[in-house]
Structure formats: structure tokens, C-alpha cells
Amino acid sequence: MKAVHFWQDSGSGDYRLWFLRDKSRREVDFLITKNNAPWIIVEVKSSQKSGLTQALQYYYKTIHPQHAFQVVFDMDYVDNDCFALQRPVIVPVQTFLSQLV
């Protein structure tokens, strides 16, 4: 929410934070829209054991956000730009949060 407020206040566009769930009960924890279009979807998990969730992959294919992240707590920081990737990716929480603003 803090990043969304920062982007909004800095005049970078109209940003909104949402929760996403459909009638089939597929859900992702966060959807960030930019100028009313899906921009980032985020699923948060404690571990990476099961790989990318089906819901994250489904929404990536369905709503076509620019970025799709499965943020996990059991990975060490990685010094790579997670926003450079144009596909769903598992990323450590420290890496993701350090690159939001």
C-alpha cells in the first residue's frame, strides 16, 4: 500500500491496490492497477516448495499484467531486477520489497 501511495503521490499515474478472486475461488493476494489496467499481480507464500501457484499462472494468462510475482519468505535476497522479467516468477520477499520504490 505504501508503494501505491508513493507512485500515486509522485504523479506517475493512477495506481490502485486490489484483492483478486473469481467465482471458482481462484485468488491472488494483490493486484496493482496502473491507469485502470492490470499492472502487477502478487501471490505471497511462506515457501517456494510447490512452485508457482495455479491461480497466479491463470490470472497472468487471463488479465495480462505486466508483472506476476510469487513472493516467498524462505529464499535469501537475490541481487537481480525482478521487474526486468516479463513472466511469472518466484522472488524472495527481501528482493521484491527492496525494488518497489
Structure description:
By secondary structure, this protein is α/β, with parallel strands linked by helices. The protein has one domain. Helix content is 24%, strand content 34%. The chain contains three helices and five strands.
Q: Topology, pairings included?
A:
Layout: H1 2-9, E1 15-21, E2 27-34, E3 37-45, H2 54-63, E4 67-72, E5 89-92, H3 93-98
Parallel strand pairs: 3-4, 4-5
Antiparallel strand pairs: 1-2, 2-3
Main attributes of the structure:
single chain; 101 residues; alpha/beta; 5-stranded mixed sheet; 3 helices; 24% helix; globular
Strand content: 25-35%
Q: What is the number of beta strands?
A: 5
Rg over alpha carbons: 13 Å
Q: Could you tell me the mean pLDDT?
A: 95
- What is the overall shape? globular
Ends apart, CA distance between termini: 12 Å
Sequence of secondary-structure elements? HEEEHEEH
The largest sheet, given as strand count, sense and whether it forms a barrel, is: 5 strands, mixed
Q: Which structural category fits the helices and strands?
A: alpha/beta
Fraction of residues in H or I helices: 10-25%
Which regions have little confidence, pLDDT < 50, spanning 5+ residues?
Answer: none
Strand order, main sheet: write it out: 1-2-3-4-5
Work out the helix count.
3
Number of separate structural domains: 1
In short:
The chain is of the alpha/beta class. It has 3 helices and 5 strands.
